[in-house]
Amino acid sequence: MWLFEIFKKTRHQVVINHLTRMERGYICVAGIDLTTLQHLRLVLRRERLKTRFLTRYGGPFDIGNIVTFRRCRPRLRPPHVEDCLTNTDQVTCQAVADPAQFWEILKNISKTSLKDIFGSSLQRFGTSCGTAAGQGEASLGCLRLKKRPEIYFGGHPERPRIRLRLTDGELHVDAPVTDLRLYGEDHYSPQVNLIEEIQQKIRTSQGLILSLGLTRAFAAAPDQAPVHWLQVNNFHFHEQPVWRLG
């Protein structure tokens, strides 16, 4: 009986709302626990999560997928308190979320303030924001904005980077966009033709919710302290809540 109790406590049914580009060949995946409505991030015990685990390649991960995590062990290292350690053989896709229900979940958990998501230790660093290493109440969340953000290309012309200018009324932020759906077949190169399409959706949508995250801590320059930087993980639009990578 005690083994069954342990199993119950370490089994989570999660709807995926973070699907993030990492280094070439790798992704980050997180979702909302359908029981607790808290975020969980999948972290593998023995390897990094590769793109081959995407649904398009026969794996369990895409936006809106309802996925079961079994035999999970939490790893509470602030601000990444959502980390859930398991192995890929303990992860299965059960279904795809109903779009209306998925949107309601996103609305129910979303906040209108960045500090309400990440805590009072969130602060400006240059044109962006983040928390000092090891600080912060969370590293994942969803944000609703009163003012529409602006997506654009930044960085060097030969290596453009997708970025988003946004404000919650207190913090004005210029953050990188790591939404995997905005990158090409290599899951690394930005799809230039999609950016204007996304900006048009931002201008006209009846509702936009952003899935946001804080990075692992790193220093932007050798003489600077490491920071958990804010990034925009995914866009969710009212008209197409379950926008899948496919």
UniProtKB/TrEMBL annotation:
It comes from the Bacteria. Pfam families: DuOB. InterPro entries: DuOB_dom. Residues 20-190 form the Dual OB-containing domain. This is Dual OB-containing domain-containing protein. The lineage of its organism: Bacteria, Pseudomonadati, Thermodesulfobacteriota, Desulfobaccia, Desulfobaccales.
